[in-house]
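Recall that a protein's primary structure is simply its ordered list of amino acids. Everything else, from secondary elements to tertiary packing, is in principle encoded there. The following example makes that idea concrete.
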Amino acid sequence: MDAIEFIARYELYIDEISSLVRPDLLPVIDQLKEIDPHDLVTPSAWFQSENDARGYVWGMFVKRVKKYL
């Protein structure tokens, strides 16, 4: 998956996480929604698969949850 695909699917990944987490963590989801996905990857960025890209977003979520709690 290239950077353009990641950028196009970023909101979908955030929505997936949102549907799976506790309501008290929704402020963290709101933080992620404010991030412009263009700022997360370079034009030459490449993910091995969609799962890798999804995992990247989950990793961002987990780091923010640790700071939030």
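Residues 7 and 37 are 5 Å apart (CA to CA). Residues 3-68 form one domain.
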